[in-house]
Amino acid sequence: MRNFEKNTTEEIKMKLFLILNSLAAATLMLILILGKEELTKLLNLLVSEAPKEVYSDLGEVHDYTNKIVKIKDQVLLDAPVIKQFPELPRGCEVTSLAMLLQYSGIDTDKMTLAKEIKKNAVPLKKEGGHIFWGHPNDGFIGDMYSYDNPGLGVYHKPIKELAEKYMPGQIIDLTGREFSELMIFLSLDTPVWIITNTTYRELPKTAFEKWKTPAGEIDITYKEHSVLITGYDEKNIFFNDPITGMKNKSMNKEDFLKAWKQMGSQAVTFIPKRVLK
Description:
Number of strands: 14
CATH topology of the largest domain: Cathepsin B, Chain A
Number of helices: 8
Radius of gyration: 22 Å
Largest sheet: 7 strands, antiparallel
Structural class: alpha+beta
Low-confidence stretches: 1-7, 30-34, 36-65
Transmembrane segments: 16-35
Keywords: Membrane, Transmembrane, Transmembrane helix
Strand content: 15-25%
């Protein structure tokens, strides 16, 4: 009997040891994926994507409770669609942001956001076969209102900064994450602002040129574009396109994601208020 009790005790100890080791490994994995700083801001949104469970960072929001989110097999949201033309030939980014903010109930428009978006003051210079200009993450590059003057666009950082003025504490930058993390928010009925290109397919290297910026050398394509992702299914991604004004336009999922990743997997969205309650 004593041997039986001893064996049982040893088995329990071993199981506890294995459980604690698993928790330590999971914590280490989260630190490696999210970074220690973001892990401390983790809002315990437990995401169930059978058969595994993972935690997801919900940004700089401090009032929260645990939520379980089931990743849906398909999503199609009814977000407002806004055309960037004719007023903003290069304003796809702020136009897509206007769609996102209006969907959340914010009273704003593309022209207001065009004025408010941070501008990059670094002048264009071409010298010795090189192009010297600003970095799109440091503000909008060039002329947003006319093709008569040089310009490009803006990346995720200034978009996030502007969005936070309208929705403080709710905006989250998902840049660099896997599409599965975007699916979390889409499954919460929240569309996602992203950067892609006008073909929605991976571009050849010839479509890019190198710029020397104060932040370092970067590869730039003039086919850069921004849309609002409104859904997905097994084979397609759905989005509102500010160029055509088409609502829930569909593209092949594999092609679309390759184009998105090629542009740095840039993505910005917001945390629904009901998640924070």
